[in-house]
């Protein structure tokens, strides 16, 4: 039974995919609630209130997935989650329209003094001259960050007869043309726009992007809007520039600290504010809750999540294609780990044939996670596989080659240790399944599943018989047996499979046999 902690106020109807899932227990409580046993939680659903810090993650050793019912993941320590192999998902487009509409409502309110006029009439005043505003029509709107929300604002601005100037370093010419906006440098936006609205994520690069230096470059009488994240526009600089009359006004839905408390910006009449309401509509909340609830359920059902921050996105169709190779990669990693017990310096993975059409980097991560499984007590999956390898000093190399050794596809992995190397090759055969076809330079053919024994021995008469006798004496039934050799009288290998693992006595007796060079029990 998976335990899912819903730590923030998330739309109840949207949680239905999880409530309907028999294998999940949904707990709607804050992380600070003493009734919650954080140690048992498998998934956590948050909005922006709960800060998923490294400290919190340390208290949640079972946590497998963090779901953000919204876009911004700046309240989640994604690096710390990645290090622990915890998947982070969000709901990237569920609140786009609501936030764009809110930004637009703020812009119209700001230029027409609607909140101030509203408060005045409620105060039994009728000051028609005090609230003369400005039209949006004919104004140049500067958009910083033309992603999902920025693009929706651009579309609305065009309908209102505005010119749209955009600064987004990742904006392509095609997208700018299709949205009918002018792609500009940040300075051009600052110098030419009448109204500037920011729609980037909060990152190291965007924190303080609109600071005092930037404000100096703007037109006198410019308006600023921030419905993205507090801190993208430097609050102290904004207060100075509103105070000295250079900036005509600002509309803010977000603050560096939320709630902002006694904040200098709140003292200005021409600063209008909302308490982080961009995504607060019934529609957006239902959308984002449903999206993340479905993602978490998908994850529990061992299917690929679609909106992960720390895993590659994969459609259902692609996943179906990659699934057999994903399994094979994990098995290759696990076999290798059980055959090479010492520390490894390098893992080289070579893909050939049809598998090269797939996302091989995902398979490399799966192989590494299979390698670390049962080797270290950190949970390693596709999220933290490369990081874990790097931390343990293992160089990972991935190559694509054209030689698939007569098979339709091949994955070959070679582990390099100080003075030896061990390689394994697997293939996936349609309607037949995964096969290991090459092991430590020997051709072989076995199904990588269950309880296996790998024996490398001298190719001499009687070796197989002596192995069989020990197993028979211990009432151990051999399910399958494959042999391979390079040359007569040289070294050879056998791979046997059993219904259950061998006990230590049988293993000991086998290892003492003459002519046995190497022996590894493999459990898959
Ligand atoms: N107020 C709210 O309730 C609310 C709701 C939803 C989203 N948001 C915020 O809005 C942000 C944007 O959301 P979105 O869905 O449009 O995200 P998005 O990822 O679709 O768009 C972000 C855009 O910013 C651009 N960008 C990144 N770094 C930049 C930089 N240094 N300079 C200029 N542009 C840069 C990216 O290229 C991208 O086009 C989110 O990160 C979130 O913080 C707020
Ligand atoms: O949860 C919310 O209401 C805010 C969401 C918003 O900030 C986001 O980044 O999606």
Automatic annotation (TrEMBL):
<protein>
    <recommendedName>
        <fullName>D-3-phosphoglycerate dehydrogenase</fullName>
        <ecNumber>1.1.1.95</ecNumber>
    </recommendedName>
</protein>
<dbReference type="InterPro" id="IPR002912">
    <property type="entry name" value="ACT_dom"/>
</dbReference>
<keyword id="KW-0560">Oxidoreductase</keyword>
<keyword id="KW-0718">Serine biosynthesis</keyword>
<dbReference type="InterPro" id="IPR029753">
    <property type="entry name" value="D-isomer_DH_CS"/>
</dbReference>
<dbReference type="GO" id="GO:0004617">
    <property type="term" value="F:phosphoglycerate dehydrogenase activity"/>
</dbReference>
<dbReference type="InterPro" id="IPR006139">
    <property type="entry name" value="D-isomer_2_OHA_DH_cat_dom"/>
</dbReference>
<comment type="function">
    <text>Catalyzes the reversible oxidation of 3-phospho-D-glycerate to 3-phosphonooxypyruvate, the first step of the phosphorylated L-serine biosynthesis pathway. Also catalyzes the reversible oxidation of 2-hydroxyglutarate to 2-oxoglutarate.</text>
</comment>
<dbReference type="GO" id="GO:0006564">
    <property type="term" value="P:L-serine biosynthetic process"/>
</dbReference>
<comment type="pathway">
    <text>Amino-acid biosynthesis; L-serine biosynthesis; L-serine from 3-phospho-D-glycerate: step 1/3.</text>
</comment>
<dbReference type="Pfam" id="PF01842">
    <property type="entry name" value="ACT"/>
</dbReference>
<keyword id="KW-0520">NAD</keyword>
<dbReference type="InterPro" id="IPR006236">
    <property type="entry name" value="PGDH"/>
</dbReference>
<dbReference type="Pfam" id="PF02826">
    <property type="entry name" value="2-Hacid_dh_C"/>
</dbReference>
<keyword id="KW-0028">Amino-acid biosynthesis</keyword>
<dbReference type="InterPro" id="IPR029009">
    <property type="entry name" value="ASB_dom_sf"/>
</dbReference>
<comment type="similarity">
    <text>Belongs to the D-isomer specific 2-hydroxyacid dehydrogenase family.</text>
</comment>
<feature type="domain" description="ACT">
    <location>
        <begin position="452"/>
        <end position="524"/>
    </location>
</feature>
<dbReference type="GO" id="GO:0051287">
    <property type="term" value="F:NAD binding"/>
</dbReference>
<dbReference type="InterPro" id="IPR050857">
    <property type="entry name" value="D-2-hydroxyacid_DH"/>
</dbReference>
<dbReference type="InterPro" id="IPR036291">
    <property type="entry name" value="NAD(P)-bd_dom_sf"/>
</dbReference>
<dbReference type="InterPro" id="IPR045626">
    <property type="entry name" value="PGDH_ASB_dom"/>
</dbReference>
<dbReference type="InterPro" id="IPR006140">
    <property type="entry name" value="D-isomer_DH_NAD-bd"/>
</dbReference>
<dbReference type="InterPro" id="IPR045865">
    <property type="entry name" value="ACT-like_dom_sf"/>
</dbReference>
<dbReference type="InterPro" id="IPR029752">
    <property type="entry name" value="D-isomer_DH_CS1"/>
</dbReference>
<dbReference type="Pfam" id="PF00389">
    <property type="entry name" value="2-Hacid_dh"/>
</dbReference>
<dbReference type="Pfam" id="PF19304">
    <property type="entry name" value="PGDH_inter"/>
</dbReference>
């Amino acid at each position: 039974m998976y335990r899912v902690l819903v730590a923030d106020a998330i739309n109840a109807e949207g949680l239905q995919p999880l409530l309907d899932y028999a294998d999940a227990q949904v707990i709607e409580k804050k992380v600070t609630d003493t009734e919650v046993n954080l140690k048992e939680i498998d998934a956590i659903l948050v909005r922006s209130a709960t800060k998923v810090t490294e400290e919190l993650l340390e208290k949640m050793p079972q946590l497998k997935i963090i779901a953000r019912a919204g876009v911004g993941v700046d309240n989640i320590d994604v690096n710390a989650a990645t290090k622990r192999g915890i998947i982070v998902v969000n709901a990237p487009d569920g609140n786009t329209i609501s936030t764009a509409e809110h930004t637009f409502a703020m812009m119209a309110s700001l230029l027409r003094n609607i909140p101030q006029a509203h408060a005045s009439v409620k105060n039994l005043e009728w000051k028609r001259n005090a609230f003369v505003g400005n039209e949006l029509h004919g104004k140049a709107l500067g958009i910083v960050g033309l992603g999902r929300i920025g693009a929706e604002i651009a579309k609305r601005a065009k309908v209102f007869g505005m010119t749209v100037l955009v600064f987004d370093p990742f904006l392509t010419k095609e997208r700018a043309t299709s949205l009918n906006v002018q792609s500009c440098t940040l300075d051009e936006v600052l110098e030419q726009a009448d109204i500037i609205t920011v729609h980037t994520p909060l990152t190291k690069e965007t924190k303080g992007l609109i600071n005092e230096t930037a404000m100096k470059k703007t037109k006198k009488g410019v308006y600023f809007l921030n419905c993205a994240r507090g801190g993208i526009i430097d609050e102290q600089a904004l207060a100075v520039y509103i105070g000295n009359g250079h900036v005509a006004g600002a509309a803010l839905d977000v603050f560096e600290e939320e709630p902002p408390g006694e904040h200098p910006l709140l003292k200005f009449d021409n600063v209008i504010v909302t308490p982080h309401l961009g995504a607060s509509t019934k529609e957006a909340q239902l959308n984002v809750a449903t999206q993340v609830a479905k993602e978490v359920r998908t994850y529990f059902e061992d299917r690929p999540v679609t909106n992960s921050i720390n895993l590659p996105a994969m459609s259902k169709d692609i996943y179906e294609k990659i699934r057999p190779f994903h399994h094979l990669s994990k098995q290759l990693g696990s076999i290798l780990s059980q055959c090479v017990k010492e520390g490894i310096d390098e893992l080289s993975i070579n893909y050939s044939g049809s598998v090269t059409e797939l996302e091989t980097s995902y398979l490399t991560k799966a192989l590494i996670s299979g390698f670390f499984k049962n080797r270290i007590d950190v949970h390693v999956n596709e999220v933290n596989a490369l990081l874990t390898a790097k931390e343990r000093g293992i160089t990972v190399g991935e190559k694509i080659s054209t030689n698939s050794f007569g098979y339709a596809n091949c994955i070959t992995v070679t582990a390099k240790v100080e003075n030896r190397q061990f390689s394994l090759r697997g293939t996936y055969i349609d309607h037949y399944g995964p096969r290991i076809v090459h092991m430590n330079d020997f051709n072989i053919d076995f199904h990588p599943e269950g309880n296996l024994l790998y024996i490398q021995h001298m190719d001499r008469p009687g070796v197989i018989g002596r192995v069989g006798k020990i197993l028979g004496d211990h009432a151990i039934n051999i399910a399958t047996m494959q042999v391979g050799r390079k040359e007569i009288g040289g070294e050879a290998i056998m791979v046997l499979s059993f219904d259950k693992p061998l006990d230590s006595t049988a293993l000991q007796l086998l290892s003492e046999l003459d002519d046995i060079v190497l022996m590894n029990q493999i459990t898959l």
